[in-house]
Amino acid sequence: MFTSLLPIFLIIIVFYFLLIRPQQKKVKQHREMVSALRRGDKIVTAGGLIGTVTKVVNETEAMVELAEGVRVRVMRHTIQEVLSKTEAAPAKGEGGAKPANDQGNKPGGLLGSLFGGKKPDNKS
User: Fold this and answer.
1) Average pLDDT, integer, range 61-67
2) 109 pLDDT exceeds 80?
3) Which residues contact 56 (CB under 8 A, 6 or more apart)?
4) CB 40 within 8 A of CB 53
5) Separation of alpha carbons 68 and 61, rounded Å
6) Are 64 and 56 in contact (CB under 8 A)?
7) 68 φ/ψ angles, rounded to the nearest 5 degrees
8) Contact call for residues 53 and 61 (beta carbons, < 8 A)
9) Cα Rg for the chain, rounded, in angstroms?
10) How remote is the C-alpha of 31 from its chain's centroid?
């Protein structure tokens, strides 16, 4: 009896490791991506529309700007990919507003923003 059921158990185990488990990981990763969505993120919807999140309405909806002045509400689970993330805004009471003409404290390019470096002064 056991030898006749052994191939069925092996098929179930193979299906679990090749199909079910990777799909569960993908769903978990998508759920984390959607929950971390914030204003300013550039996204791609499942329909292929590229836009910028202007407001996270609630846990199921987000307001997305597709073109200047064109805003639509989308279901958050239809967001397929986040193209670029924005930095978290400082909490109220932290840091305050920065001066508009403070050129010395801006990071220089992509590497500068990653490592917190400053632009070199070219005043020579």
Assistant:
1) 92
2) no
3) 37, 38, 39, 62, 63, 76
4) yes
5) 20
6) no
7) -60, 120
8) no
9) 23
10) 10
With tokens 């202007």, the residue in question is: 54
Identify the helix (H) or strand (E) that includes residue 67: strand 61-67
Q: Could you give the CA distance from residue 52 to residue 74 in angstroms, rounded to a whole number?
A: 12
Residue range 68-102, pLDDT digits in tens: 989 999 999 999 888 887 776 555 655 554 544 44
98 phi and psi, to 5 degrees? -90, 150
Is 71:83 a contact under the CB 8 Å cutoff? no
Tell me the pTM. Answer: 0.58
Cα 72 to Cα 53: distance, rounded to the nearest angstrom: 10
In whole numbers, what is the pLDDT of the chain averaged over residues?
79
